[in-house]
Amino acid sequence: MFSSFWNFIKRHKKKFLFTGAVVGGVYFLSKYAQKKIKEIQEKEATEYIAQARRQFHFESNQRTCNMTVLSMLPPLREAIVTQLNSESLTALLKTKPANKLEIWEDLKFISFTRTIVAVYSTCMLVVLLRVQLNIIGGYLYLDNSVGKSVATPLTPPDVQQQYLSSIQHLLGDGLTELITRVKTAVQSSLGGVSLKQSLSLLELEQQLSWIRAEVEVDSGRPLSSYMLADDENALADQACGLTENDVVTIRLLNETRDMLDSPEFSRVLSTCLNRAFSRLLDNLAEFFRLPVGDSAPNSAPDSLSAVSLPLAKIIPIINGQINAICSEIPSHFVQDLLLNDQVKEFAANVYETFSTPQELQK
């Protein structure tokens, strides 16, 4: 029996060797496949956790952006009102001075200028802080990433403070230059409009469009120049010296300048301005409504041209809009800017750029 068995083995030896090799190969291949699948699953889980962590950090950073904008609006409003003090003129008018008409003309220019400047500077503040805080946020994410040495942070606290203090340009010299530009445009547009002349909301919208065109198009100067000092000496002055931290601060300021000069930034700022001026007109429309039960011939009750008001009556309305625009209490005006989809997308792109390790960007 055993002789027959060994003869069978000899006759089919090659088949047994091949079958054994196949079975062994399948076994080891199966083990290798299981190992690779486990590695892939672990890698995917790690990447998912990292992505979720980064998403959480990003969303937290956006809430910080919103709170920072709201906290900066009162000092912005104070800076505007200080340079464009209409209250002193209204108080002077109550004394019935001899040059009453001249004071009214000054009040006309100041009222329109400060409201329009409030719109521009609030939009600039929203978008600029989105850039700055997402640059900082991206670097902070890298600083806190696994494997990163906390002993050598990319943005030490002193650097963050120096860098973020550059916002003072918008509240200082930048604001003064913007006021000069807007006031020139206001005088050009409204200089020939009599205080007695009546304007409809449609005509008022046209006036604002002319002013915007002169400020944004005809000036030949980018709006970003009012937000951040663009000359290297000024950047160095803002960084206050040449220590290691100051060099990092200057680098952050230059990176910010690159972002402000990008076409995407211009598009986002333009979107904010369009929405902000639209919201301003919505606020003004409340004062141009027909009394209940009245109607103008051939006009719908809510028509933009149905109601006209003398410019002298429009001035106080315009003058008071700064309180709604630069309000630390979340208003429809500010919420429209903070919740704008293009602003959110732009913020995500900035954060993505600066939270990605440099070696992965190359």
The value of Rg in angstroms is 32 Å
- Give the class from helix and strand content and strand pairing: mainly alpha
Instruction: Report the count of strand segments.
Output: 2
Helix content: over 70%
Share of residues in strands? under 5%
Work out the helix count: 16
- Described by its quaternary structure, the protein is single chain
* Average pLDDT level: 83
State the low-pLDDT regions, or none. none
Strand order of the largest sheet: 1-2
Distance between the termini: 73 Å
Subunit structure: Interacts with PEX19.
InterPro entries: Peroxin-3 (IPR006966)
GO biological process, one term: protein import into peroxisome membrane
Organism: Crenichthys baileyi (White River springfish)
Walk me through the structure.
The protein has 16 helices and 2 strands. The radius of gyration is 32 Å and the shape is elongated. With 362 residues, the protein is an all-alpha fold. The N and C termini lie far apart (73 Å). The chain has a two-stranded antiparallel sheet with strand order 1-2. This is Peroxisomal biogenesis factor 3. One of its GO terms (cellular component) is peroxisomal membrane. Involved in peroxisome biosynthesis and integrity. Assembles membrane vesicles before the matrix proteins are translocated. As a docking factor for PEX19, is necessary for the import of peroxisomal membrane proteins in the peroxisomes. Keywords: Peroxisome biogenesis.
